[in-house]
Design goal:
387 residues, alpha+beta, four-stranded antiparallel beta sheet, 14% strand, globular
């Protein structure tokens, strides 16, 4: 069979082969992190999840500036006020022009329930501005300011873009403040759980024998403890004079000593298969200590699973906080989280009267999905040679 001469090939084929050769040469000299990034950005859902996660954490950092008002402000005159639609343009004699506003409220009496209800009044205009001055706050507890991203230009007339709860508190501001608590809660617990899981699981698989049996029996005992009754017992055991946020952090740290068991068993199984590998034997013959062998040689060999477990543990903590706060076992007012906000929607009457109280559940859904997509992409990218 005759070999095809490069001169006889079409120009498109020649350029394509040249591009493939250039890519192969760049891959051959690329670092591990470059390979991970190239594979991660091919995962579209992981990229979307990463962008959404960054946006959520950016909101958590700048909650004071982003929220229209403070979540603790009670306005009894606006109980269960419905959401107000934001209009960015207003019709004038000269045509449409940029002039953000919302329509105000008017009070009506429900003839069946004989209760006061709010309805949108199309004739009432409430001007809305960006970068407006409003309620004072202390940014990150360092300096005082009263600049808000969006809000009513009249401080005496509030706006409710997502409605109000039974106390007249702004739901949007509460959700923004709850983002900081819900997205940060449990991070310390996740770090402690992973440290204990990798350390104890590594020791169990690395040494085996009596040490392995002891650690495995401890894991079986811990996993047999029901979680919800343990939460209730810990909540009752902590000092009553502690603020709610400190109580929850205390319970989270205590439960982090229980959450390491699943990862420890996975690490143990991997170490049992890795401890006889050549690179492990070479590290031990080179004089490396047991901890150095575990952390510098054996743990990086299954780094992809560790990354996936880490990113998937954070949404697990978010769901745990939301569930427990919804049941009244976690955070309580004045601390605001997504789970605390969902407490308002525990009964049929509240949901029927103000269905917008379920919106914090949508925030939980978006955050958990984004972190799951991000974790899936990081898991695949951590093993760039696996196709």
């Amino acid at each position: 069979m005759a070999v095809t001469d490069a001169k006889t090939l079409p120009p498109e084929t020649v350029s394509q082969r040249a591009a493939e050769a250039e890519i192969e040469s760049s891959v051959s000299v690329a670092s591990q992190w470059q390979l991970m990034w190239w594979k991660f950005r091919k995962h579209r859902m992981a990229m979307v999840g990463g962008v959404v996660t960054l946006i959520i954490y950016a909101i958590a950092i700048f909650v004071e500036f982003l929220s229209p008002s403070s979540p603790g402000v009670i306005r009894a005159d606006y109980t269960w006020a419905p959401p107000q639609q934001l209009h960015l343009f207003r019709q004038t004699e000269q045509g449409m022009r940029w002039d953000p506003y919302v329509n105000g409220y008017k009070v009506e009496i429900d003839p069946e329930a004989l209760r006061r209800t709010f309805v949108i009044d199309e004739e009432t205009i409430v001007d809305v501005g960006f970068f407006v001055r409003g309620e004072p706050y202390k940014m990150w507890g360092l300096w005082e300011s009263n600049l808000h991203l969006i809000g009513s230009t009249d401080a005496e007339v509030p706006v409710y873009f997502l409605g109000a709860d039974r106390m007249g508190r702004d739901l949007l501001s509460s959700m923004i403040y709850g983002t900081r608590v819900s997205m940060s809660i449990g991070l310390l617990g996740v770090i402690l759980s992973f440290f204990l899981g990798i350390l104890l699981g590594g020791i169990s698989g690395f040494y085996g024998g009596t040490v392995d049996n002891l650690i495995q029996r401890i894991i079986e005992f811990i996993r047999s403890i029901p979680t919800i009754p343990l939460w209730m017992g810990l909540a009752a055991a902590l000092p009553t004079d502690w603020p709610p946020l400190r109580i929850y952090f205390g319970i989270t740290i205590i439960l982090s000593f229980i959450g390491w068991t699943g990862l420890a068993r996975v690490v143990r199984g991997r170490f049992l298969s890795l401890r006889t590998e050549d690179f492990v034997m070479a590290a031990r013959l080179d004089g490396a200590s047991e901890l150095t062998t575990i952390w510098r040689h054996m743990v990086p060999s299954f780094f992809s699973h560790i990354i996936a477990s880490l990113t998937l543990s954070i949404p697990g903590m978010i769901l745990a906080e939301t569930s427990l706060s919804f049941l009244g076992l976690g955070l309580r007012r004045p601390v605001v989280s997504w789970g605390v906000l969902l407490q308002e929607a525990q009964n049929i009457r509240s949901v029927a009267t103000a269905p917008w109280l379920l919106i914090p559940g949508l925030a939980v859904l978006v955050a958990v999905l984004a972190l799951n997509f991000l974790g899936d992409g990081l898991r695949d990218a951590a093993d760039p040679y696996n196709r």
